[in-house]
Automatic annotation (TrEMBL):
<dbReference type="GO" id="GO:0003676">
    <property type="term" value="F:nucleic acid binding"/>
</dbReference>
<feature type="domain" description="DHHA1">
    <location>
        <begin position="383"/>
        <end position="474"/>
    </location>
</feature>
<dbReference type="InterPro" id="IPR001667">
    <property type="entry name" value="DDH_dom"/>
</dbReference>
<dbReference type="Pfam" id="PF01368">
    <property type="entry name" value="DHH"/>
</dbReference>
<dbReference type="InterPro" id="IPR003156">
    <property type="entry name" value="DHHA1_dom"/>
</dbReference>
<feature type="domain" description="DHH-CID">
    <location>
        <begin position="206"/>
        <end position="289"/>
    </location>
</feature>
<dbReference type="Pfam" id="PF02272">
    <property type="entry name" value="DHHA1"/>
</dbReference>
<feature type="domain" description="DDH">
    <location>
        <begin position="28"/>
        <end position="169"/>
    </location>
</feature>
<dbReference type="InterPro" id="IPR038763">
    <property type="entry name" value="DHH_sf"/>
</dbReference>
<dbReference type="GO" id="GO:0004527">
    <property type="term" value="F:exonuclease activity"/>
</dbReference>
<dbReference type="InterPro" id="IPR048515">
    <property type="entry name" value="DHH_CID"/>
</dbReference>
<protein>
    <submittedName>
        <fullName>DHH family phosphoesterase</fullName>
    </submittedName>
</protein>
<dbReference type="InterPro" id="IPR051673">
    <property type="entry name" value="SSDNA_exonuclease_RecJ"/>
</dbReference>
<dbReference type="Pfam" id="PF21763">
    <property type="entry name" value="DHH_CID"/>
</dbReference>
Length: 478
């Protein structure tokens, strides 16, 4: 396949080199991250490896660190494919490579550590933003497309159908902005649409269009707060009942996807009018409409049909030590694994809403340049980052200052998660640098993206960490 045929031309030669190595391996250990992007990365890689008849085994890690890399090395695979992580720990991985433990192939989008390794596929190496233009799953998709070319796989598999999973990963990593995906991500969307795996529609930009009954859809939409609608059950019901749209069928509330296009149009305009009349500013009202990414092959009205709902379903598995369930769903299980994932989702949703309530109740501490909270053992360390992000803009939590959250991780360590916003990044915020530097100063380590990063630090060092992070962020925002 000619280089120009790849979805991201800048990455083609790196992708070809990585694919070539994988194609010549007897077997591959596939290691990936435990979130929606990590799971979809693993699913894209697993499918491409299988189609290329390359035997593999998949393992998942919460965080790649010296210990987890050592345990991967102990598996004695000659070739290890890291997806959605690896770049940040390149130094440690390169040491194992020098020792002859394994040859690493990395498909990641996190800020790379200083070190040299040949088979490293990362958008940041080619000037493409890893937080907004290409996710881990997108990067793995680029590799999967190259794998289709180097293997003697069935001609029918150009792997473009995998674009749908890549888009779920990008959406799960919150790479969409101004209502849609951009840059290399948009190129992947185009391939998915061309392959018939994906549909792109302009629609109401509210979470839950597939699965939430209409009143819950509107009531829980907290991204744009609308007086008389957001968190107002009675307000929502009277709004819906006042419309010239049949919102119920056989006495039960319909879901958004049950409405006809014309009904959707009428409901959306009424919602916009209502928001205008309640004084919601125009720039916020614009956010009510955006691009929806629909998985064409999935059943309407299920969590799998919409990229955003799909990604939450995956987080509900992998962040609760059930990556196997999420991976099975990605690979097509619509029975046992899908049922289990839905149970896990109910639990995840409960934890998210309880977590946000906890933050609202206990409040955050405001420093000069950051705000923070310490959830101790009250919030699971694997979801404290999601909660930190969702709580920005909630009661008592500012949106114009980055948020840092702590949660207990075992007896001796503390997990740190931090989240910023687009405007803060525009002013110079780089949480990956701030978290990494502050963590290393107190004996821990961290990294990630400019807009969202994390770290692990020794328990008890939180006050010093806060002081350092506050100063570093202050310098960045100067
Ligand atoms: O490790 P990984 O790259 O998959 O995680 C990215 C994290 O950054 C996600 O938890 C995502 O929610 C967060 N993020 C964010 N806002 C953005 C981009 C990413 O909160 N604009
Ligand atoms: O859980 P996950 O990180 O995939 O959530 C992504 C986004 O989806 C959240 O930041 C939130 O805006 C939205 N969401 C929601 N209600 C839920 C779960 C997720 O609105 N129950
Ligand atoms: O865990 P959390 O969702 O807060 O992670 C935010 C981002 O920071 C993710 O992209 C994650 O991979 C990254 N991270 C990291 N090193 C850590 C912790 C998180 O690179 N020690
Ligand atoms: Zn990712």
């Amino acid at each position: 396949m000619a280089a120009a045929d790849g979805p991201v031309p800048e990455l083609q030669s790196r992708a070809d080199a990585c694919a070539e190595r994988l194609c010549s391996a007897d077997r591959v250990l596939l290691a990936s991250h435990i979130d929606a992007d990590g799971l979809t990365s693993a699913a894209v890689a697993a499918t491409a490896l299988e189609r290329a008849s390359i035997p593999f085994e998949a393992v998942f890690e919460k965080q790649l660190d010296a210990e987890s890399i050592a345990s991967i090395a102990a598996r004695e695979y000659e070739t290890v494919l890291f997806t959605d992580f690896g770049s940040g720990q390149l130094d440690v991985i390169a040491e194992h490579e020098r020792d002859g433990a394994f040859v690493p192939v990395i498909a990641d989008h996190h800020r790379p550590a200083e070190a040299d390794t040949d088979l490293h596929l990362n958008p940041l190496l080619e000037g493409i933003d890893g937080a907004s233009e290409l996710s881990g799953a997108g990067t793995t998709y680029v590799l999967a497309r190259a794998l289709a070319a180097c293997s003697d796989a069935d001609e029918r598999h150009d792997n473009r159908d995998l674009a749908a999973l890549a888009v779920v990963g990008a959406v799960g990593d919150m790479q969409a902005s101004d209502g849609e995906l951009h840059g290399a991500n948009a190129g992947i969307v185009a391939e998915g649409v061309a392959a018939g795996a994906l549909e792109e529609t302009t629609d109401l930009a509210i979470y839950g269009k597939q699965t939430r009954p209409l009143p819950k859809l509107l009531e829980y939409a907290s991204d744009v707060r609308i007086p008389g609608i957001t968190n107002d059950e009675r307000g929502v019901v009277s709004f819906l009942d006042g419309l010239d749209v049949e919102c119920r069928a056989d006495g039960a509330w319909k879901q958004w996807v049950d409405l006809t296009d014309d009904e959707k149009q009428r409901l959306a305009s009424a919602l916009v009018q209502h928001a205008v009349s309640r004084g919601v500013p125009a720039f916020k009202i614009d956010r009510l409409v955006g691009t929806s990414y629909v998985l064409a092959g999935e059943t309407v009205g299920t969590e799998l049909r919409d990229a955003s709902e799909f990604s939450t379903l995956l987080n509900a598995t992998a962040r609760y030590e059930r990556a196997d369930v999420g991976l099975a769903v990605c690979l097509g299980d619509r029975e046992e694994a899908f049922d289990r994932a839905k149970e896990l989702l109910a639990n995840h949703r409960r934890n998210l809403s309880e977590g946000i309530e906890w933050v609202e109740e206990h409040g955050v501490t405001r420093e000069e340049h950051i705000q923070w909270f310490d959830a101790g053992g009250e919030i699971r360390e694997t979801i404290v980052g999601i909660i930190a992000g969702m709580s920005m803009g909630a009661d008592g939590v500012a949106r114009d200052v980055p948020i840092v959250a702590f949660a207990r991780k075992g007896d001796e360590e503390t997990k740190v998660s931090s989240r910023g916003t687009g405007p803060l990044v525009g002013r110079g915020l780089d949480l990956s640098a701030a978290m990494g530097e502050a963590a290393r100063a107190v004996g821990g380590d961290g990294g990630g993206h400019d807009i969202a990063a994390g770290a692990t630090i020794p328990a008890g060092t939180e006050p010093e960490f806060v002081e350092r992070a506050d100063r570093l962020v202050g310098e960045q925002l100067d």
